[in-house]
Amino acid sequence: MAGSCFADRLAKHVPLSDVEKKALARLEENPRRVKRGAMIQRVNETVTELFVLRHGRVMSFVILPDGSRQILRVYFPGDFIGSASTVYSKAPESLVALDDAVVCPFDKHALRRLLEEFPRVAALLFLLSNAERVAMTDRLASLGRTSAKARVAAFLLDIFNRVRLTDDSITDSFDLKLTQEEIGDAIGLTSVHVNRMVRQMELEGLISRANGRISLLDIKRLEEIGHYTNRHKDMDLDWLPAA
Amino acid sequence: MAGSCFADRLAKHVPLSDVEKKALARLEENPRRVKRGAMIQRVNETVTELFVLRHGRVMSFVILPDGSRQILRVYFPGDFIGSASTVYSKAPESLVALDDAVVCPFDKHALRRLLEEFPRVAALLFLLSNAERVAMTDRLASLGRTSAKARVAAFLLDIFNRVRLTDDSITDSFDLKLTQEEIGDAIGLTSVHVNRMVRQMELEGLISRANGRISLLDIKRLEEIGHYTNRHKDMDLDWLPAA
DNA sequence: CGTGAGATTGATTTCTATCAAAATATGTGG
DNA sequence: CCACATATTTTGATAGAAATCAATCTCACG
User: Fold this and answer.
1) Are both A94 and A166 inside the same structural domain?
2) Which nucleotides of D are covered by protein (CB under 7 A)?
3) Is A69 in contact with A59 (CB distance < 8 Å)?
4) What is the residue-level pLDDT of chain A in tens, covering all 243 positions?
5) Which candidate, B207, B187, B117, places its Cα nearest to that of A145?
6) Which end of chain A has less neighbouring CB within 10 Å, N or C?
7) Can you give the residue range of the structural domain that contains A154?
8) A109 domain-assigned
C-alpha cells in the first residue's frame, strides 16, 4: 500500500538536507491508525493539532445549516492536513478518513519549533500552502463557471493525477474511494446527477468502470471537457534558499 | 483614501520587531500607480514578481475557454497578491485594478532573502497563506452548495468585512466598486440574476443602495441567508515564535 | 446632447434538483 | 457461507432555479 512521508514529498520539489529531513520526520513520530469513516477532526472543535497523512485518504468538508455537505479537499499520503489550525483555534472544517488510514498528529508548538529552527522549511511550507491555494482557485472556477459534466471530468482528472503523485504504478486506472454522493458533494451536484454524467461519459467511451476502479480512456478529451490544467507539472520551487 | 502597508497589516496579528518591520517595508520600495482597469498581471505570462497592494482594489480572475470569467478574489490595501508566482513561473491568474491603485512589486528573490533572514516572517506568511486558503474554502462551499441569494449575501458581507479591516470609518455602508456583472463572475451567476437577487434583497429591506454605495441594513439576517461566518474575528496567531 | 456602459425587466429555455422506485452491491451476524 | 440489512447505483418523471435572449431604461461623461 502506498505510504509517503512528508519529507519525501517535499524533497520531490527541493533538495533537503539530512538535518531538515530528520526534523520533518519528527513530526511523524506518533502515527495513529484511523478506520475508514472515522472522524479525525470535527468542525468547531478546539484544535491545536495538525497532521501529516501517511497512508490512505482523508477528506475535509463542512456541513451547511440546511444539512448539505461541501467536500473541500481530498488528501493523499504525504499531504499536510488540518493546516487551518495554524490560524484558527476552532476547526473550520471536519476531517474524515475515506480509507483505513494512518495520520501523524503533532502539536502546533512542534510546528513552531520547526519553523524557528528551519527557516527554509518554513519557506517551503509557505510555498506549498500557496500551491494549495491555487488548487483551490481551480476548483472555484470549476464550480462557478462550468457544467456538471465538466466538473466531473475535472474532478476525476484531479484525483487521478494526485493519486499518481504517490503511486507510480498507476497509469490510467485508479480507485476513487468515493461514492457518487461524495463526488457530488465535492463538486456541487446531487448524486443523481453525478450518476447521469458518469453514465454518459461511460457511454461516450471517455471512462470505464469495474468494481470501484475507474479508467480514464481518453485523457486528452477529458481535459478539454473539464477545462483541466495539471498544475503539478510546472511547479517551480528552485529559487528557494539553498540547503 | 485608505492605504495600508504590509507590515501594519501583519502587525495587527502579531507584534513585529522594528527590524522585521523595516525588512517588510523594503518590499514596498517601488510603489507603482495603476489606473482603474489596468492589467497588472496576465494569465500564462512569465512572472517573477509579487506585489503588496498599498492603495485601491485589485481582483484576480481566470477566463475559461468558452469566454466566461471566474473572479477568484478581490484584494484590499495591505494584501499580499500574486503569491502564485512563488510556486509557478507562469501566472495561473490575471490581476486587474478595480480602482486607481498603488501596487508595490518586488522580485521573488527579494522574498527569498526576506524568508532567509527572517524566519518569523516566513512563518507568518505561511499562516496568512493558510488563512487565505480557509477563505477560499468558504467561497467553495458558497458556490457549491448555496442558492443565488445566499451567495450574493455572503459576498456582500465578505467585501464589507474586508473593507472594514482597512477602513475603520465604515460602519454599515461601503463602496463595492464592482459591477453586477463582476459580482456574478465572482459568485458564479449571470449579471441578470445578480440584479434580480440584489433587487429582491432591496425590496425586503436587507440592503439599500445609493450612487454606488451599498448599505447593509440587516446584517444578522444577511449572515443567516448567506451562511456567513466572519473568519477575521477569531484568528489566533499568538503561538508563533516571539519576536 | 449623444454615446455607451451598466442596470432593470420580461419571456423563454435549459440545466440540475427533487422525488420516487428499482436494481445492485456490500457488508454483517449468525 | 448464507441470508438479511444497508448502502450505493441506476433510471424515470417532474419541478425549480438560474441562464439566455431581448428590450428598455438610466446615468455618467466626453
Assistant:
1) no
2) 7-13, 17-22, 28
3) no
4) 456 788 988 888 899 999 999 999 999 999 999 999 999 999 999 999 999 999 999 999 999 999 999 999 999 999 999 999 999 999 999 999 999 999 999 999 999 999 989 989 989 999 999 999 999 999 999 999 999 999 999 999 999 999 998 888 888 899 999 999 999 999 999 999 999 999 999 999 999 999 789 999 999 999 999 999 999 988 989 888 777
5) B187
6) N
7) 147-226
8) yes
